[in-house]
Design a protein that fits this description.
- The complex is a heterodimer of chains A (324) and B (360).
- Chain A has twelve helices and two strands.
- By secondary structure, chain A is mainly α.
- Chain A has a two-stranded antiparallel sheet with strand order 1-2.
- Chain A has a domain of 192 residues: Orthogonal Bundle (MetI-like fold).
- Chain B folds into two domains: 240 residues, MetI-like (MetI-like fold, Orthogonal Bundle); 102 residues, no CATH class.
- Chain B is 57% helix and 12% strand.
- In chain B, the strands form three sheets. A three-stranded antiparallel β-sheet of chain B has the order 1-2-3, with no helix packed on it.
- In chain B, helix 2 packs across helix 4, helix 2 packs across helix 12 and helix 9 packs antiparallel against helix 12.
- Chain B is elongated and about 85 Å long.
- The chains are: A mainly alpha (324), B alpha+beta (360).
Chain lengths: 324, 360
């Protein structure tokens, strides 16, 4: 079966799930007490007529199922509703922030793997060295510290050592400046904190898993065979053991995506990064319902696309797996 | 059967062999004891405000005086304002040491099991001054006392939440695996939907369903409900898989032949065979609930005043300025870290002892 058919089939399976998710999301929003328009009424500058007008305009005076179908039809046409808080269509607002969200998550994932795999191999080969013990300790620290706490700790450490590059992705003078070498360096100076905050638990997880997989692989019969026929230890390790130890990790990457997205959201709220995190937070606090619904749907969609990519990657690196 | 060959006894022996496991178990026991007697161990009442001691740093405890070991004492801190920058700072008033007394009955009153009392494990006499071991917050409330009382929320949310999600997960997962058919499809679709949305955004959205006008005890229950609503799905999947495998066992066929009802087979035959697996999974799932509650409370979407929880206390450290000026506000994080780590090690040791890994 070709890859195109595989993707198409997965998309077809995902559709009913997405439909159910939309129903759940809509129900949650309906259950919220009050709403943006109710809050608006408390503002003396806003007349009751204006609010009623908006309510009629967005069919908010209609029964729930009419609202749901209206919202769903809008999504199919690429219209995610209107942000009352920002006074702009939701889709415009999301596009501005989606780029940074995907960038941060993807970069973290990449850096995580780049660091965790070699460390996992190292700790498997030098099980009782002091460095391995230290690395395992950092791993446990990463797994037991909530992301927001880690962010607070790093901010404190940077501030206490006299640094100022905390919060946001750029210093104020570079935010609207065109791209330049200086702006890029400024980005790097800010970027390491979110990368550590979002990526530490993932790194620890992959490192531990890689260590376990490699130890497991090294005790297999084919490794003894490879050694017995006189292959160089380098070839035994890298071509036979490591290659087989990495494959199971790819499905782990798929499983870690929800944590990655959640981490990106909370890290962005604490560090005020321009992703969908603070956007979702503000929308929830102000009951900006269309924004909340769109972002929840979007985070579920991101998760599904990520899982699909992990499956494709797995089939690509492991010839035993076919697209089925 | 000889007591020494009993599976539980053997598992217990295996558990005792794991040093991190036993140590974590003791740490957890200590934490829960502290939560139970929080009001007594806390030197101050957690809600009493001390306006003259706003953002007071932790007081140092001294043991030596003029070269001699004496009863531990502290100095009172006096606020001073820099005449140029107007930044206030605290200085120790070295003239008068305030002795720390143990089992004092002159502290701030609190309630224990419905009784009003002012017995404290330690503290200073109210007439002699204050003792804030971990400093105070903006309103001059004792952070140490708030952490202790907050642990009652932070440590119970996980346990109650896991119990509820387990009851749901076992029942629905069991039914799903045992009956199959359209019931299975329906339950599996539901879990898939719940697992398809990343955890934090859906938790945040669900917690805004709790009305802001609710009293804090209701909000506490609401947060537990929100965490369990998401938590049962993963477990139901696991239980379903296990039940599918166990369903083919001969003892299930035997039970069916004897005319046992379906519910009886699930609860009396299948669940007990999964019990060790379930206990281990529950222990390892608990940190997720602790972290979930703390994240929600930290964002202001969870526990609310006058209750306290570790996450809610960390909320005070959210802006960069108070973080750099009052770093002691970060200490509740240490408790989150310790309890999560302890549960992880404890769960790992239980898993090794129960040796359920082969069933994974």
């Amino acid at each position: 079966m070709g890859i195109g058919v595989f993707i198409l089939r997965r998309a077809l399976v995902a559709l009913p799930t997405l439909l159910l998710i939309s129903l759940l999301v809509f129900t949650v929003i309906q259950l919220q007490p009050g709403g943006f328009l109710e809050n608006m009424l408390e503002d003396p500058r806003v007349s009751r007529e204006t609010v009623e007008h908006i309510r009629r305009q967005y069919l908010l005076d209609q029964p729930a199922w009419v609202q749901y179908l209206h919202w769903l039809r809008g999504i199919l046409q690429g219209d995610f509703g209107f942000s009352f808080l920002n006074g702009r269509p939701v889709s415009e607002l999301i596009w501005e922030r989606l780029g940074w969200t995907v960038f941060l998550a993807a970069l973290t994932l990449w850096v995580t793997w780049l660091i965790a795999i070699p460390l996992g191999i190292y700790t498997a080969l030098n099980r009782y060295s002091p460095t391995s013990t230290a690395l395992n300790f950092v791993g446990y620290f990463g797994l037991a510290t909530p992301d927001f706490l880690l962010a607070l700790l790093l901010i404190y450490l940077v501030l206490a050592s006299g640094g100022t590059n905390v919060g946001g992705l750029f210093s104020p003078q570079y935010i609207d400046a065109p791209w330049s070498w200086a702006k890029f360096k400024d980005l790097l100076a800010h970027l390491w904190i979110p990368l550590v905050v979002i990526g530490l638990d993932g790194t620890a997880n992959i490192m531990r898993q890689m260590r376990a997989n490699l130890l497991d692989a090294l005790s297999q019969d084919y490794i003894r065979t490879a050694r017995a026929k006189g292959l160089a230890e380098r070839v035994v390790l890298w071509k036979h053991a490591v290659r087989n130890a990495i494959n199971p990790l790819i499905s782990l990457a798929g499983l870690q995506l929800p944590t990655l997205i959640s981490s990106t959201i909370i890290a962005s709220i604490v560090l005020s990064l321009p992703t969908i995190g603070p956007f979702l937070y503000d929308a929830l606090l102000n009951k900006d319902q269309y924004v909340v619904m769109a972002l929840l749907m979007l985070s579920a969609l991101l998760l599904m696309v990520g899982n699909l990519l992990a499956d494709i990657l797995l089939a690509w690196v492991d010839p035993r797996i076919r697209y089925e | 059967m000889d007591r020494r060959n009993h599976p539980l006894y053997l598992a217990w022996r295996r558990f005792l062999r794991s040093k991190p496991g036993v140590f974590s178990g003791l740490v957890l026991a200590l934490l829960y004891l502290m939560a139970l007697f929080a009001g007594f161990i806390a030197p101050n009442n957690m809600t009493v405000q001390h306006p003259s001691a706003s953002y007071q740093p932790p007081q140092r405890v001294y043991f030596w005086r003029e070269g001699r070991l004496v009863r531990p004492y502290v100095y009172q801190l006096r606020r001073e304002r820099d005449p140029i920058t107007f930044i206030s700072s605290y200085k120790e008033d070295r003239n008068q040491p305030t002795p720390i007394r143990f089992f004092i009955a002159q502290g701030e009153p609190y309630r224990f099991l419905g009784l009003k009392t002012n017995w404290h494990l330690f503290g200073v006499a109210q007439a002699e001054g204050y003792f804030f071991p971990l400093g105070t917050d903006q309103f001059g409330r004792c952070l140490f006392s708030r952490i202790l009382v907050g642990s009652q929320v932070s440590l119970t949310v996980g346990v109650i939440g896991v119990l509820i999600s387990f009851a749901l997960g076992i029942l629905l997962g069991g039914i799903s695996g045992y009956y199959g058919g359209w019931v299975d499809t329906l339950i599996q679709r539901t879990t898939e939907v719940l697992l398809s949305i990343p955890r934090l955004p859906i938790l945040m959205a669900l917690s805004t369903v709790i009305p802001t006008s609710w009293p804090s005890t209701y909000v506490y229950l609401g947060i537990i409900a929100v965490l369990s609503f998401i938590g049962w799905a993963g477990l139901a999947r696991v239980v379903r898989g296990q039940v599918l495998a166990l369903r083919e066992m001969e003892y299930v066929t035997a039970a069916v032949a004897q005319g046992a009802s379906n519910l009886r087979i699930i609860l009396r035959h299948l669940v007990p065979n999964l019990s060790s697996y379930l206990i281990v999974t529950a222990t390892l799932a608990l940190p997720g609930y602790i972290i979930g509650e703390s994240a929600l409370s930290f964002l202001g979407l969870g526990i609310k005043e006058p209750m306290a929880s570790w996450g809610l206390l960390l909320k005070d450290a959210q802006n960069f300025q108070s973080l750099s000026l009052y770093p002691w506000l970060l200490t509740p994080g240490l408790l989150i870290f310790v309890s999560v780590l302890a549960y992880n090690f404890f769960g790992d040791a239980l898993r090794d002892a129960a040796d359920v890994r082969s069933r994974d």
